[in-house]
Amino acid sequence: MLRMTLPSAEELLKGAAAVGGQFAFNQQPTRFLFRPRTDRMNWRLLHSLDLDRVIREGDVDTIQAHMDNITYARFSREDLDATSDDALVKVVRLAQLSMEFLCSMCASSQHLLQGLMEKVRDQQIQLKTVEAKGRGLQQQRRDVGARQRRRSQGRDSEKAPPAGSTRRCLYCPKRFSSDQYLHEHIVRRHGEALKGAGG
């Protein structure tokens, strides 16, 4: 029952991918594998445990310290013959306290998981909003760039002399669209000829 309410992280991610980013809890859990019981019960440790104090102080650290002793220990008829009824009652009470603690941990984990999933949903919404804004800004940049190119082309066409009104260099066969370009060409390419003519 608890495994149905608390899916693993892998199940959550698979479920989210399958439902388009929405988390699903109604999936069947994978088969649970129980560990073999190979350890021996530590009766001496169990006899030293004061369960009334543990309950009175809410000492979950002690419960956790004893969990391995009862969870993974092999319990057989040999143990029944070697121990008293009081020790068996203590084992059952310790098992009950352990299960209560685990149920509480499961419930708080589920609450935490639901809170985290809400945050993930909120962040997905924020991410989609930011992506949409980014696409809008990119479109605006493209529009501004296109307008600037059109303006630049318009200015260039205004500067360009009418067809057939090019200026020819006096020293070579090259032609230029403006007096400024012609002058710069003469200074750059034919500077020595200018010095000779002026000197």
Task: Please tally the β strands and state the result.
Answer: 4
Report strand %.
Answer: under 5%
Q: What is the percent of helical residues?
A: 55-70%
Strand and helix order? HHEHHHEHHEEHH
Q: How many helices in DSSP terms?
A: 9
How are the strands ordered across the major sheet?
A: 1-2
Euclidean distance between termini CA atoms: 107 Å
Uncertain regions spanning at least 5 consecutive residues? 1-5
Morphology: rod-shaped
- Broad structural category: mainly alpha
Largest sheet: 2 strands, parallel
Report the mean per-residue pLDDT as an integer: 81
Q: What is the rounded Rg?
A: 43 Å
Characterization of this structure:
The chain has 199 residues and is mainly α. Helix content is 69%, strand content 4%. A hairpin with a 6-residue loop joins strand 3 and strand 4. Helix 5 crosses helix 7. The longest helix is centred in the middle third of the chain and has 75 residues, at 85-159. It is rod-shaped, with a radius of gyration of 43 Å. The chain starts with a helix and ends with a helix. The model is unreliable at 1-5 (pLDDT under 50).
